[in-house]
Amino acid sequence: MNIRPLHDRLVVRRLEAETTTKGGIVIPDNSAEKPSQGEVIAVGDGALLESGERRPLDLKVGDRVLFSKYGGTEVKLNGETLLVMRESDILAVVEATEAEEKAA
């Protein structure tokens, strides 16, 4: 089953939470915070303007984004928990540095 968000909404897959600190301490699952980063997996057609035209979204499928911890609406699809949120709920796009792109 596929999901297609409407208008200025998008679907985000939350990235896995860090389970180990930089110092090597393992964080138990029940103490770990919800990650506030995710990957965009679907985008809507765009915001509907008063003129009736659509403004395309600035985000695209595959973008890595930051959002507030409690932003969006959680939905379960095919056993996976996804977030549906408006484009305005996204705080920033995380872009890879040149060193990270070379390493990939």
Descriptive terms for the model:
104 residues; 10 Kd Chaperonin, Protein Cpn10, Chain O; 37% strand; globular
Query: Structural class, please?
Result: mainly beta
Percent of sequence in beta strands? 35-45%
Along the chain, the helix and strand elements come as: EEEEEEEEH
CATH class: Mainly Beta
Q: What profile does the largest beta sheet have?
A: 6 strands, antiparallel
- Poorly predicted residue ranges: none
Question: In angstroms, what separates the terminal alpha carbons?
Answer: 31 Å
CATH architecture: Roll
Widest sheet: strand ordering: 6-7-1-2-5-8
How many structural domains in the coordinates? Answer: 1
Q: CATH topology, anyone?
A: 10 Kd Chaperonin, Protein Cpn10, Chain O
Count, helices:
1
Q: How many β-strands, per DSSP?
A: 8
Describe the SSE topology:
Layout lengths: L8 E6 L22 E7 L3 E2 L5 E2 L8 E4 L5 E5 L2 E7 L3 E5 L3 H6 L1
Antiparallel strand pairs: 1-2, 1-7, 2-5, 3-4, 5-8, 6-7
TL;DR?
With 104 residues, the protein is mainly beta. It has one helix at residues 98-103, and strands at residues 9-14, 37-43, 47-48, 54-55, 64-67, 73-77, 80-86, 90-94.
